[in-house]
Specification:
six-stranded mixed sheet; alpha+beta; globular
């Protein structure tokens, strides 16, 4: 059973609701697939779901899924599974924090619409690369063995 948790964003504590059962099933499925895909990949480390990650002196986030680079310990991929009752924090507030701190990749997984928004960092912030749905595939070139259709991801 999931529990509420807290994040610190720009020095302010943000209480977060316990995720729904579907949220947790989608997250567990994605976490397993990423774990399998990076097996043997020594440059990346997959953290347990909602691990507290300090990304500045005043912000500590708990992405649903986090992939860090081994060499630097820096957050490379943050995945947020959007909750119906708590979506503003992920889609606006935390997205801005990820952008300010130059997180390389951000995936916004939205169970409300069964789609994923894929963002890449570039010199001016985060740029929307694609919005995936249906039979479209989620993949990341720096995780060469990972590929998953939206139908597979949301079939929980």
């Amino acid at each position: 059973m999931s529990r509420p948790y807290e994040e610190i964003i720009e020095g302010a504590t943000w209480p977060r609701s316990a995720p729904s059962e579907r949220h947790e099933k989608i997250l567990a499925h994605l976490h397993r697939e990423i774990a399998t895909s990076i097996n043997g990949l020594t440059s990346m480390q997959l953290l347990p779901p909602r691990t507290s990650i300090p990304i500045s002196r005043t912000s500590m986030v708990c992405p649903d899924l986090a992939l860090v680079t081994v060499a630097t310990g820096k957050l490379f991929l943050a995945v947020e599974v959007i909750s119906r009752d708590d979506h503003h924090t992920d889609t606006v507030t935390k997205k801005e924090v990820y952008e300010q701190h130059r997180v390389s990749r951000l995936w916004m997984v939205d169970p409300r619409y069964d789609n994923v928004e894929v963002y890449h960092s570039f010199e001016f912030g985060l740029k929307l690369q694609s919005i995936l749905a249906g039979s479209e595939e989620l993949q990341e070139k720096l995780i060469p063995h990972f590929k998953m259709t939206m139908k597979e991801l949301f079939a929980v």
